[in-house]
Amino acid sequence: MSTIDTSKPHAARMYDYFLGGKDNYPVDVAAAEQVTSHFPAVSAMARTNRAFMHRASRLLAERGMRQFLDIGTGIPTEPNLHQIVQGIAPQARVVYADNDPIVLRHAEALLHSAPEGRTAYVQADVRDPGKIIAAARETLDFSRPIALSLVALLHLVGDEDEPLRLVRELLEPLAPGSHLTLSHATGDFDPETWERVVEVYRKGGTAAQVRSLGEFSEFFTGLELVDPGVVLAARWHPEAGAPRGGDGGGEEIPLYVAVARKP
């Protein structure tokens, strides 16, 4: 088993801190508080992102998706994706993948599948799509549609790692009718703040990079966007009574999201 490196912050543990979790270390807390000092709405952004994942997964399950591949899973926070989709379709199958050993330690929480369905966990990095796909084939039927989730992940992948290529390689083996769900932080509305946030992550060893609306939209080239297309998270199928800006007390959360279908 991989050892947990507590000498530098990890994005999954920082995200856990933003969500109010306890599975983080002083180095993660210090980096997370630096981010908060630059962008005080970061915890609201994490909650907004989580709520989007719930809505997107629910919508896809309601529309008949029965297989899900979630990369960049993060430390389990209930309800997890499989709890959402198996609540609608108990026979749904879910494969989780993450590269932080602390997520592996909590994988048991991700494996409490409904008896009719199945869940599995893969210790892997999005930068190794071949490993993820090979492992996912043990649980998922690649001749049938799969919902691929890369939620709040690609802004932790720098251009030097060719995220567009990684997404294409993950989509290529998926059957027609598969879906892609993405969310991504943007600096479109306050570039100076996000330069400082990105610098915190990069100093900690994470190749963070925010992207513009145009850059985010490129991930969906060749796919059919599900209405309402590429929008800010709070505007994607909002729950009744949800604040317009997400959890930010009316402030617009700078997080682009979309779901698209492979034709």
TrEMBL record:
Would the keyword Transferase be found if you checked this record's keyword annotation? yes
GO MF entry, a single one: methyltransferase activity
The UniProt entry, under Pfam families, shows: Methyltransf_19
Q: Which InterPro entries match?
A: SAM-dependent_MTases_sf, SAM_dep_MeTrfase_SAV2177_type
**The organism's place on the tree of life at top rank:** Bacteria
- GO process terms (BP): methylation
Q: Which organism is it from?
A: Streptomyces purpurascens
- What is the name attached to this protein's record? SAM-dependent methyltransferase
Sorted alphabetically, the keyword list is: Methyltransferase, Transferase
